[in-house]
């Protein structure tokens, strides 16, 4: 008896029934069915398939995604294990067009059918990506990526220049979000092809027109997301150098958060999405009003504190005795002035008295030493010739005319010669002579 055979009248267990031998009386189990499907799927060989990544979810180091056909009518799920992910390019993301080597796999427990990726790469972009990397290195060496060369955006632009596709979601996003933030914002929009051969020339023409407009304060170049192939126009060297040479600040809003054309590096500001560009270019009127209100409140508080502080200081000064009764300061100073004046008068009086006494003493001394005082005591001065004072009797021999000066005037006399000394009657004054008038 085989594993699929049973004794007569006995129903075999479901796990023992092969799906091809199942019947309403002898059904197979779900596990047996899934194992049969798995065994059948595992005999399939790996295939290379081309499509666009529409989902790229990283969980636990593994990637779970979906790959869509170019026509959009078919889609497969794929799993990319962490060991394989480490060997793939780091630039793979949702929206990329790729070729992948996949092998079908069927999971018994969940009944899920999926494909396991063993290799994946961009399709048709290998050489172009290499060229872009060389261009990136060249522009970086020339300083086009240098943050110091970036122009600052105006706080509130008068007119915003917008280069985008006609009737595109990017245009709607920029307008809607900008107008929500600042209702009176103005736009000058020029439509251009955002992919294909017309992308670069039309974008260059629009950029030249807006850059020459004196009313345009900032220019936004915007488009929605896409695979690297469709975004190649925004890594064109002609466009990049035109952006670097523009006098108007330029904002790059190309694709989604993960899209990075070279325009992002050269532009003065990179926005992750068109919506983000509107938020970065236009200030939020509600936020600005809140800031103004906050500044007003802070200024009012500071001013109130300052006035209150000054009032308190003024009140403190007013309560001081000198300000409460100013005449008290004058009264105390008046008494001090009267005391100093009295003291000064006393000092000057004493000094005057001392000076007067000294003058009197000096006057008496001068008078005692003067010739007039000597003449007052009865002495006389004899002069001969042209006023020579006679100090020796020999100076006035007999017959010499002599002028004699006494206390009260002078008179003329003539010498009769030297008088012999008479010790008994000799006067104490030496040099006296006998003279006739």
UniProtKB/TrEMBL annotation:
InterPro entries: Exonuc_VII_L, Exonuc_VII_lsu_C, OB-fold_nuc-bd_dom. Residues 427-437 have a biased composition (Basic and acidic residues). Residues 29-121 form the OB-fold nucleic acid binding domain. It is found in: Cytoplasm. GO terms for molecular function: exodeoxyribonuclease VII activity. Keywords: Cytoplasm, Exonuclease, Hydrolase, Nuclease. Residues 1-29, 413-437 are annotated as: Disordered. Residues 144-362 form the Exonuclease VII large subunit C-terminal domain. It comes from the Bacteria. Its EC number is 3.1.11.6. NCBIfam families: xseA. PANTHER family: EXODEOXYRIBONUCLEASE 7 LARGE SUBUNIT. Belongs to the XseA family. This is Exodeoxyribonuclease 7 large subunit. It comes from Microbacterium memoriense. The lineage of its organism: Bacteria, Bacillati, Actinomycetota, Actinomycetes, Micrococcales.
